[in-house]
Fold each of these.
Amino acid sequence: MAHQWQGLIAEYAERLPLSDSDVPVTLGEGGTPLVYSQPLSEATGAKVFIKVEGMNPTGSFKDRGMTMAMTKVASSETRMVACASTGNTSASAAAYATRAGLGCAVVLPAGKIAAGKLAQAIVHGAQLVAIDGNFDDCLRIVRELTQTYPVALVNSVNPYRLQGQKTAAFEVVDALGDAPDIHVLPVGNAGNISAYWMGYCEYAGRMSAASMEETVRNREPRATRVPQMWGIQADGAAPFVKGEPVEFPETVATAIRIGNPASWDLACAARDDSNGLITAVTDAQILQAQSLLAAETGVFCEPASAASVAGLLMLAEAGKVPPDATIVCTVTGHGLKDTATALGERRVDPDVIAPNLDAVSSALGLS
Ligand code: F0G
């Protein structure tokens, strides 16, 4: 009988910081597909796999961190959570707070959240506050809010978020049999690159800067090596490339429209300790990669997610991709969250024709 995935806390319990009193708050997150991409492999001369994180319950990788963070809040005295978000964190927090029976407040940059993500926060019953500022302002306010009131912070500065997110690296190794040579992913607030690096290190039997010792001690290694971490930012929001915070970040990929990443040091450690890199791509490259991935590989992701593919293609063109390397690209969120950006100028309303076979076959060029 096929194995029914139990959610990442149950699947990876021994490598997560859990106590006996923790009752998992879960929607069955994790266990996402790792899809081989023939077109991307041909384009890069490598073996390219896509980790499709849009297949999580709320359509993004955030659910991995949220199941852990919300489990910990649920077993504490606190009855309310809050987060700043460019959209996906708020969607995930709203759903998992509902699951845990907790109140949820989300602070968002006004006018910069994709419609699908906003809809999610609303239908799951979160309290929405939109501010005249960007994500970095939202995070500053939410940090102050959660220090002042009995409200738990569930952004990725909450260490349990990264603990949950590291399981994506475990899944990659479990699927491939060992770590890939290179792992490529988009970078915004920089939690995810730090979490993947932690996961890869722990599976190889090592600590990373983000590791909690109890999750590494006495565990059997499951990988013989670690990958290079390649982080990709959007040109208009590329603090790691500039080497300093960006005051007014701007990009079509609103999910990574972040100028002052919270996990700065951890992300630099992931880049440097893995012998990797963090670079940036233009909005045009992002949109082109999004469209290519949908049309050629069959995976529809949101713009921020496509930054990983855009970066890989750019680096391949520059001769930076070793031949035959095994490469995993994380696409972090589902394309359905932001159909307006994906469609762009494309025509959405087809011509309406007569309801008969002749008219349809002729419209299709078959007769
Ligand atoms: N991709 C997507 C789809 C995201 O939503 C985010 C972050 C990232 C990539 C970047 O990940 O921050 O760990 O480097 N979204 C956050 C949010 C900021 O509020 O939903 P990161």
Amino acid sequence: MGSVGEPTLNDSAKGLDYEVLVIGAGLSGIFSLYRLRELGFRARVLEAGSGAGGTWYWNRYPGARFDSESYSYQFTFSQEVLDEWDWTEHFAGQPEILAYINFLCDKFDLRSDIQFHTKVTTAHFDQSNNSWRVLDDAGKQYTCRWLVTAIGFLSAPTLPNIPGVHDFKREAHHTSRWPQHPVTYEGKRVGLIGTGATGIQCIQEIAKTVGHLTVFQRTPNWAVPLHNSPIDKDEMSAIRADYPALFDRCRRSYMNFLHMPETRALSEVSQEEREAFWENLYDNGRGFRLWLSNYRDVAFDKEANKICSDWVADKIRQRVKDPATAERLIPRNHGFGTKRVPMETNYYEAYNQSNVRLVDVTETPIEQITATGIRTSKEEIELDMLIYATGFDAVTGAFDAMDIRGLDGLRLQDRWEGSPRTYVGMTVDGFPNMFMSMGPHQSYGNIPRSIEYAVNWITDALAHFREKDIVYVEATAEGVEMWTEHVIDAAKGSLANEVDSWMTGINRNLPGKQRRIINRYTGSAPGFRGFCDGIAGGGYSTFKLA
Ligand code: NAP
């Protein structure tokens, strides 16, 4: 591992504070730091929070946990960590996930190069010496040759655009800005807005202890059972012995997950066969299996999708006692799996409790959030606590929150004009020496798998540039055009791209985010890696290098 703070022999960044600045100490940021040190770079991470972890630092809401198998959602870069870290649940809860991240930070002494409580406000490219000038919210300036954004794509939370949203005088939290102190629900009247993956995890947990919970739902989602269970020592040993095969399966799968798609189409099997198949996945299939190991045409063919959606709708009807509530919980405007499927444990059963009530705001819209509760078109509901599980300004929101300027003062926000344009999701023309881990148009899927690839690719590239004394790297306009068109082409035919969600750039709370766009790469992850490997193998000659 390279020593920290000491300029390396090949230091191409003399006179600058750092060779590399990384914004964000989530999974992308901490792995970037690990790799940059290993390669001997003088690097620093700037992080707004008081601790590392990013998503898993901020999202401390009740019930927050992995929806992907814990062991598939960990880093693979260190055999020692793989040997030492035991998971206690198939889908670990947020405290265990944060403990894992802190274990990594301790083991590799990462915190000594992470500057906490430092929110980056500005990053401007300085053409006079091919460097970035970065400012934090305290006005402190940092200079570097290479800028790596590791800011997450679900990290800029949004509140609902409901009148009075700032008027509520009692306890109120956005799920993604959950306090670090314990929050209790006993005896309290809690209101919760939002029924995405976050809201669903939160509702099923709070329902266990709450005085009374009112869920305000605009759009229901197709949630299916998570099938979490503890992992004992013996099972952990067996899982660990299987790590090489497990990671290999992730590498070969379309979105880096453990689950492989069913090779048959729905039309190739009988009704009895498909129902038995779904029944088995619904009752026994862990995590995303019903979504990702479904018949191959369910994601593309409207008829196949409808048959599957109708089958899942019947499951909801079987689980929710009140027929009117069950009907309200069945999505009508999108088919099963066309949005990221939320995972649940007794979510639907929560609505069978006498102290949990569903308010469908398409029937009785929220007119006003008041100092003491919520007024709908029908009634005034008094609340002691209000929870916003209302999502994010996804993918580009964290970029828009900073004033990022490239050549000739060009603002990134203007370059993208509401729809991102990138070269392999990691670079943008006009923004030299800037690299994005989990930027728009990257393959997301199982995020740590994607992060490991992106960070390795970026840091290998930086090592190459240093070796060749290259101090200026910029994506070409042709490269950006080609990749952006490819991203749009790859999305064609998928039903998910015809549906409004954060994945298609829609956020109805933000006036500028109501036009459907393609903001992530939906082609295969192996294909993505193959393409990026080709760029590296070609000596990065598809970039402008100087
Ligand atoms: P989301 O999917 O965007 O859901 C936001 C919810 O808030 C939606 O139900 C939305 O309704 C509702 N909402 C927003 N504004 C509203 C308004 N003005 N009035 C009424 N309802 C409003 O956000 P999320 O649930 O935080 O999930 C985002 C993503 O985070 C997930 O898709 C997933 O990728 C990730 N996530 C991962 C995990 C995990 O891995 N364990 C857990 C949670 C989340 P509409 O649909 O009608 O807009």
